Amino acid sequence: MAKGRIIKAISGFYYVQADGDMYQCKGRGVFRKKKITPLVGDVVTFDFSGDNEGYILEVHERDNELIRPPIANIDQAIIVTSAMKPAFNATLLDRFLVLVESNLIKPVIFFTKLDVAEQERDRFEKYQKDYQKIGYDVELLSVKHSDHTSILKRYLKDKITVIAGQSGVGKTTLLNAIDPSLALKTGEISDSLGRGRHTTRHVELLPMFGGLVADTPGFSSLEFQDLGASELADYFPEIRERKANCKFRGCMHMKEPKCAVKQAVEDGEITDYRYDHYVRFYEEIKSRKARY
């Protein structure tokens, strides 16, 4: 028996890396009975034969996991969002941030394609300052940027990173630019849809700069399926740090009097658009139909 990490999962096979070697494994039937699905990123115990084939015997406890994309034990998520093609969507960015925060994963924000939207640079520098004030790491990148390698090396070293974002924002292009040997497929933007075609077909952890990077299928929408309305404020850091100052315990920062969060919005300490997104997400969660 040995211990390793699932690097790739395709067609019912799990490719487990252990001590520099790769093993093609299948999951035991007991996993299906217990409704356990091994995920890329899982640390597992497996048994193997001499031909580097084996069976996964145990999936170890996860630090965190995502459902879309299916991946576990992530240290950080680099959320890539473009200035144009597809057009920047602040609501979508905040959806990603809430999802990442709620899974106890550190978010990093990359704004891309600033060279093809040079007239928008001032606007995105303002967004950069807004999100940095909240406490996020934020980078402004161009399509062709000499600092891509040094910037990514700084973030990726010794970490397991998921690269996330809407289709067509340049996730795969970004990775190919710094390591052409990856030969990852990239797609063109569909002008009619204003979004990219999904070109990444499966999740795979790729060795890069002493860490592991997952290039994942793109997203066009996100839903807060397992998030309760009362939890939402915890995943907006600027709201979380002020909620203890609200007059009423259990304040939802909506219509309650003497709310420290609403006061911070009035005082310009919390941006209007971030608070508007909090309200929109809160109402969306409250109106969600119960699942049985």
Automatic annotation (TrEMBL):
Localization in the cell = Cytoplasm
Pfam families in UniProt = RsgA_GTPase (PF03193), RsgA_N (PF16745)
MF terms (GO), sorted A to Z: GTP binding; GTPase activity; metal ion binding; rRNA binding
EC assignment: the record states: 3.6.1.-
Please state every residue range assigned to the domain named CP-type G: 63-222
From which domain of life does this come? Bacteria
> What's the source species' lineage?
Bacteria, Bacillati, Bacillota, Bacilli, Bacillales
Q: Which residues bind Zn(2+)?
A: C246, C251, H253, C259
Q: What is this protein called?
A: Small ribosomal subunit biogenesis GTPase RsgA
Gene Ontology cellular component? cytoplasm
Question: Keyword Cell membrane, does the record have it?
Answer: no
Key word rRNA-binding present: yes
**Which cofactor is essential here?**
Zn(2+)
Query: Keywords for this entry?
Result: Cytoplasm, GTP-binding, Hydrolase, Metal-binding, Nucleotide-binding, Ribosome biogenesis, RNA-binding, rRNA-binding, Zinc
Q: Which residue ranges does the record assign to the EngC GTPase domain?
A: 72-220
